[in-house]
Specification:
Layout: E1 2-6, E2 12-14, E3 25-27, E4 30-31, H1 50-53, E5 61-65, H2 68-84, E6 90-93, H3 104-107, H4 109-119, E7 124-129, H5 138-144, E8 150-156, H6 175-187, E9 192-196, H7 205-215, E10 218-221, H8 224-227, H9 234-237, H10 241-247, H11 256-270, E11 275-277, H12 278-283
Parallel strand pairs: 1-5, 3-6, 6-7, 7-8, 8-9, 9-10, 10-11
Antiparallel strand pairs: 2-3, 4-5
Bound molecules: iron/sulfur cluster.
């Protein structure tokens, strides 16, 4: 893994496409992703962006935006004014990296951004990760709660399986640890969402729905055919991942029919109000203030 420290001139990127309805900006503390060689990295279409990779193999590099917090502070007022007529400053962090790559432990870029947000809070903040590591920032998230009207931690958990078998790399972080992190966040009063996206082969959908339902406030499910923003899931197909699934005998999971069946099971187990799909789910405002005592 090649790690480089870089200086950036901008850290808040005005949204387009899929996320535009729910967010004014995306915020990526890193360029590239340390989990690119993990299971989630296979279908990750950030790998197609030449602007991000500059020809480097996905998962082989990480550019650390060491001045991210400073740039946020200098940029935020102008972007807040721009966002004022568009629903307010609503930040999705992150869209093409993970805010909790292992290097975050050393560099603390995400942490520094959460700290500067204590002075300059957005109206909406969604932290999206494939890890249990938002727990590293539990105190900062707690401090942000009264300042950010819509705060949520979204943890991606695409399957209940610990691995997909031969030929597939391991998860970025273990499934059980991510579910436990959701439970801990919820206990701490941090609104949290499980994101089953893009849905991968699930062993026991009903039990998976129960586990997620017990751990978080709501669940968003997505399939590459719906959510990758291209006709027929072309962006994901370019990664070769759907073909790999088909070769391994998981072809039913590359169709929407199976996806809809799983969504129906989730709705049955959790209630339709706690289950959302694709674009609507990602853009829907967070679950609101959650608590351990919330009735489910
Ligand atoms: S953690 Fe996110 S950005 Fe990183 S490789 Fe996985 S899907 Fe892509």
């Amino acid at each position: 893994m090649q790690v480089h420290e870089i200086q950036v001139r901008s850290i808040l990127t005005r949204t387009g496409g899929f996320l535009r309805e729910g967010y004014s900006h995306t915020l990526n503390p890193y360029r590239g992703c340390a989990y690119g060689g993990a299971l989630c990295g296979l279908p990750c279409y950030a790998q197609h962006s030449v602007w991000i990779t500059s020809g480097r193999a996905w998962g082989s590099f990480l550019d650390v935006k060491v001045n991210a917090a400073e740039v946020y502070r200098s940029q935020v007022n102008r972007e807040r004014r721009w966002a004022a007529t568009r629903g307010g400053l609503r930040i999705y962090m992150s869209s093409v990296t993970d805010p909790y790559v292992p290097q975050e432990r050393q560099y603390g870029i995400t942490r520094s951004l959460l700290e500067v947000m204590l002075d300059e809070p957005p109206e909406r903040l969604v932290l999206q990760t494939h890890t249990p590591y938002p727990l590293w920032d539990l105190e900062r998230l707690r401090a942000l709660l009264p300042l950010v009207p819509d705060l949520s931690v979204n943890i991606s958990i695409e399957t209940d399986r610990d691995n997909l078998g031969p030929g597939f790399p391991p998860h970025a972080t273990p499934v059980a640890e991510r579910i436990t992190a959701l439970e801990s966040l919820r206990k701490a009063g941090i609104p949290c969402v499980a994101v089953v996206a893009p849905m991968l082969p699930i062993e026991d959908p009903r039990e998976f729905a129960r586990r997620l339902g017990a751990a978080c406030d709501r669940v968003v499910l997505d399939h590459f055919l719906l959510g990758d923003g291209s006709p027929g899931g072309l962006r994901t197909r370019r990664t070769g991942f759907p073909s790999k699934l088909e070769e391994a005998g998981w072809q039913q999971w590359t169709s929407l029919e199976q996806f809809e069946k799983v969504c129906d099971i989730f709705s049955e187990v959790l209630g339709a109000d706690r289950v959302q799909k694709s674009r609507h789910g990602f853009n829907t405002p967070g679950p609101g203030r959650c608590s351990e005592t919330t009735t489910r």
